[in-house]
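I had to read the description of the data format several times before I understood it. For illustration, here is how one protein appears when written out as sequence plus structure tokens:
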Amino acid sequence: MTKSTQEFQEIYSKANAEDLKFKSPEGLTEEVVRQISKDKNEPEWMLNKRLEALKIFNSKPIPTWGPNLGNLNLEKIYYYMRPNAKTNSRSWDDVPKDIKETFNRLGIPEAEKNALGGVGAQYESETIYHNLKKSLEEKGVIFSDCDTALKENEELMKKYFMTTCISLNLHKFAALHAAVWSGGTFIYIPKNVKIEIPLQAYFRMNSKKGGQFEHTLIIADEGSELHYIEGCFTKNNLILTSEGYKKMNEIKNGELVLTSEGDFKKIKQIQKRPYSGNLYTLEFYGDSTQKIEVTEDHEFLYVDKKRNNERNKIFDPRWNTPKFFKKGDYLAVPINKTIKHKERRIFEVKYKNKIEKLSVPMIPEFFRLIGYYLAEGSTINEHYLCFDFNSKEREYIEDTKKLLKEIFKVDAYEQDHKTNNGTSVRVNSTKLARLFKQFGDRNYNKKLPKWVLFENRENQKEIINGWFKGGGNYYNKKHKSGIKEIFRINTTSEILTKQGRDLLLRLGIVSFINKRNRLKENRRIMFTLGVTGNFMQDFGKIVGIEVNKKMNNKNRASMFGINEKFAFFPIKKITKKVVKDISTFNFSVEDHETYTVAGVAVHNCSAPEYKENSLHAGGVEIHVLKGARVRYSSIENWSKNTYNLNTKRAIVHENGIIEWVNGNLGCLTGESKIFSSKGPIEIQSLEVGNKIYVWNKKTNKIDKSRIKNKIFSGNKRVYKLEAGGREIETSSNHPFLNLVRKKNKKEHKKGFFYTEWKPLEQLKVGDIIGISKKIPIEGKPYILPRIEVGYKTESKNQYSKFVMNTSYLYNKKISIPNETNENFMWLMGLIMGDGHIDSKNNKINIATHITEDYRNKLIKIIKDLFGYKVTEKKERYIIINSKILCQLFTKIGFSRNAGTEKVPKWVFTLPEKQILSFLAGYFDSDGHVEKGGIYFTSINKPLLEQVKLLGIQTGFGVSKVFVHDKAKEKTILGKKTHAKDSWRILFNSKKIKELPSKCKRKKEKIMKTKTRRKDSSSGGLNFKSKTNEEIGFVRIKRIEEIGIRPTYDLEIENHHNFIANG
């Protein structure tokens, strides 16, 4: 969990008093640029570069894509502020006190000492601290700010600074950055040097209306490696949500999780990534059911133990990472403080096929009854409400009957069970049985619904009271060593035990959880919720048992601690193992950035807060030379008032690898279809390890590669881009493959075509982007399911049960192929378009007019495939009477009606010829030929979108799905009817002549049709040399903003791209 809101604001939002040596006037002028260069004593070539960039900045308009910059007044920004501090201090002691306190709050000295190979800290426009571990200096690693690098490594700066990676002309804010850049980080990793611990830089803006323009330049020489590992948890750790405890990998975006402030906040981002390195397992006293698995650098809210043999009197939390944990120190568990109480609650229950509302008073007596139910309650067939006590527990039996009478006005009766000395209190009430079923109907599935967890404390005390009286015990015995005492509640429900622990925390009582495995006894695991030590007195007051303040002549004590916000549990055991490429998870939480794992507070990310608009326009350039590898991670949580307009680019040489981790990268909406070996899959449904199709720059072909990481990027403003019949919804900074024309030399008359990646915000209507013309299909026939034919079935009437012979429903001579073939798929396409499966009457109708030239082929194919002879032939359709075939077609996904029909997922995994046969069948039923190509028409738009994906996969030119006709009244076959909206899609290109249509009339029209697809030339430009059968280029037709949507991104092994929506 991250820091609490109050701590968070104290640490990150507090601005120091302004103390500057120099502050430029508002606005940007040539004088300001010259002043920056003069202050830094820069070489002339850098000043000239700044001045050139200033001219470009002044000439370019404000971008209209991306964030709304309407409130950004560039004339009100201070572009250069030099703090009153020594630059590039090597000692933390040389940093001025106020600035040092700022970075102390951020934890830089502690991080440098414990985890970092080097650290840099920038305040306003200057780097005020930089240090590198001696061991890395000895390897030749350079880690400095860019101002120092300009003096000490000028040749490298001149070669790489905003030359080939980020150009001055890239966009207005890239030019602004080049004109006023200051400070930042310069990293050079020599040949074959590998850095296993991270180098890290921190940037802090203090002054309002300020600008920060740090430059990051990373040069990884041949064979070198720079690595950063970010902290995360494994999938089985339990997270406390508003709906209860859930495994980490089951959490969804938007769920509410408990924060360190004791309230619940929404998850806004889910990060999943592979991890290799040390994995720690933490066990702590107080919950023997829990083990936390976490990477070594993830921060926990932690308290150091003051004395070895004594519990802390004061608990002062700080943040610490597992690799520095010590046994006996404390982990902090936040207390849920949310209270949501109502005088009455309305519950809906189903009764006699109607929904009835029960109004129940939220009074302590009702909650005590809930407690009795948690311990001793059950329901029978949803009609009887039961409470099972020991016959000697007359006090609780009478109390339960009294509560039922007072609250629900019902008379309960007793039923004795002599064999086990038990007495049941029962109520014959369907309504009450269904009301109490929300708490579980058996001991092992008992739980508290969400509304109970947020009730006021007085009511929750009564839950504990009733639960303890029904299912608890007070152990108080004298041993040789003295008296031993403990309160215990036993249950077979693990979730209820944890919820009970959480309720007690709300009441200021720390309890522990144990479990006892009873598998040898063939019984369920028993969970115990126990209270000992100084917490027994408060628990005793709740359940009506007096507990002495002292035990064995000593004040009662506990190993656990508690205050208003947290409980503190000592660490019991710490183990470590090395893992490779396992999936790990992390969350970002709305307005707070904190959450709990196994109840314990853990740290995620943080952000400063500003009251007036500021501008951050940094630049990141990474040069990965031959065989080198760089992993660049960034978490940028600027305040809402800061315009964060960074530019990040990398150039990767032969066999080099760049990994961008998270860091404000562009992303797509969750419904975007990513082409994989299993067909198009929504990006939100993909998993790490899935293989998807990518563009191989070296071969200009489509290959497959593995997903390394899927990132939920939160809700972002997105835009719809339309090009080449494809539509995709994307954030403004998502990159697309752009075809540009450039002259190699000024004297050349014509330019040459090159590909480069550009974010959407730099593209416009008319620009040319890459598309996949065809996916290299590696499909296999689909194995058809076997249909179990049972000729006898059980039935009954009001008098008796009996067995019926149903053989007359089945055609025993029907045979089913083992797997799909081309004729089978043509038939499926025909059924999808013009078929109707009537499972109730065991009929399949296929609309095919008696004049259709393929009707006899259809009848023959049915005979060849299934051994079935069609005998019912009507003027407009034929009928197949077969229960077996009805079941088969339904089972493989072809039983919906025209408005809900879908292409089953397995169709996308077939060999190309079978997919073409399926499209041909659909075309023969619902398609026609017109000028320019073939058209499919349907009232089912989602179906046509799937057909389009099949067309892209097999190499057709496609249009977008467009409106064909609006809903209206029509006369069809002499009858008036209401026609629904209809949609249409066009397939074109030479590929349509390969469509294996069995309709002779349509096939002849196809062969006469002149068609072409515009993916190799446009507007007088011919770029055929850049295209092939798999890759093409088309002009952007439309870009429009569509609102805020949940977004996702992928990291791909050995590639930085993937194919989405074609």
Q: What stands out?
A: The chain has six domains: 20-230+609-663, 233-334+564-603, 344-466, 471-496+511-559, 684-773+1017-1052, 792-966+978-1008. The two ends are 40 Å apart (CA to CA). The longest helix spans residues 44-59. The chain has a mean pLDDT of 79.
